[in-house]
Every structure is written in C-alpha cells, then in structure tokens.
Amino acid sequence: MVKDILGAIFKGILICDFYGAYNKISALAKQRCFFHLFTELVKVDKHNSSAPWKAFRKKLLRILKDAIRLSERKVQIKTADYGRLKNKLESRLNQLLKIPYNDKDAKRLTKRLKRHREELFTFLDYEGVSPYNNHAEQQMRKPVLTRKVSQQNRSEQGAKTQAILMSLFRSAELKGENPVETVLEAAQIEIGSESQADQNLKQAA
C-alpha cells in the first residue's frame, strides 16, 4: 500500500514512524517520528524499572528534547553556532549508541536507532520538517470534529460525499482559497462540461 501511494521513489521528505514498509521506499530524506519514540519509552517504563534502562532512557530523552529545542531556536541562533550545536547533538547520540547494553529494552531500542541513525535529525537540516508525523492527523481534525458534531453520517453515500467535500475544502484552505467558492466553481465547471457533452451527443445523433 505504501508503494502504491508514494511509489518506490518518493521525491520529497518522508516523515514516518518505524513501520518496516517505509524502509522499502527511497526518498530525498526521511524523518522518523519522535512521538513514537517517546511513546516507546513510556511503554517500557511500565514493565522495566531497572537502573540500566533508566540511565539509557534519561540520556536518550534529553538528546531528543534538546534536538527539538534547537530546532525551535534556529531563527535566533547564528548559522555557525547552530551547526556547532547540531554537531554536538550528533556526537552525543553516537556516543550513546556505541555503549554495549545488557538491558534487553535498551539493547532493542539501540538496535532500532542504529538502523535509522541517519533519519533521526533530518528536521534540523530542512525548513518546515517536523520531528512528528501527525501532520496529516491534524489536517483531518476539522472534518472529524464536524462529523462528530453532526451526529455522524447517515449512509455510506453520505460518508463518501463528506470525505470528498472535506478533502476539497481543506485543499482549498491550504492554498489560501475560499473553500466554498472553490468547490462551487469546480461544480459549475463540471456541470458545464456535462451539458456540453450532452449537446455533442445530441448533435452526433
């Protein structure tokens, strides 16, 4: 499914979780989602309270949060200083991943991070790239709230219609256009095309 939607070669920057299917896609660059890492840390905390795990967790969490803070301060920092701080983060992460761990969770997570090492700090190199992959979910927030407030769809056709209209409305918003006017204009063009097609058929008959 990932290949069908994105293609085997994706020309943009792919922000994704650690799902294995994304490994099959070539892209300009990839950014692995930090939120999934944070969730993993919380999940492990529920069954592992060992000192080695806590030490590993503390260092990794600090590195990830420092990377996010650096990204947020990018416009306030000189280019040379930004590069130096980014290199320092890279070095800290490399050092953390070099340590041999006996704790099974630390070892497992280290293996994953090593596999995707070059896909963790992509957001520090590109403008507009987030360390989280929930952008699409946020884009769907308005339609979901609308569906909830309106007491859901009453039929399958209604659900399909809403899905199409919400996609058109949101696309228009992102382009800075008036959603209602854009959809009405598209409908008028479609109606005009159908009328012309009907006339052509009548003339041919």
Can you walk through the features of this model?
It is a single chain. The chain is mainly α and 205 residues long. 63% of the residues lie in helices and 7% in strands. It has a two-stranded parallel ribbon. Helix 8 crosses helix 9. The two termini are 44 Å apart. The model has no long low-confidence stretch (mean pLDDT 89).
Q: Structural class, please?
A: mainly alpha
Strand order of the largest sheet: 1-2
Largest sheet: 2 strands, parallel
**Secondary structure tally: strands:** 2
- What is the string of SSEs from the N terminus onward? HEEHHHHHHHH
Oligomer: single chain
Number of helices: 9
Strand proportion: 5-15%
- Radius of gyration (CA) equals 24 Å
End-to-end separation in angstroms reads: 44 Å
Overall number of structural domains = 2
Topology, element by element:
Layout: H1 2-6, E1 9-16, E2 26-32, H2 34-45, H3 51-72, H4 79-98, H5 104-115, H6 135-139, H7 141-149, H8 156-174, H9 179-204
Parallel strand pairs: 1-2
Helix pairs in contact: 2-3, 3-4, 8-9
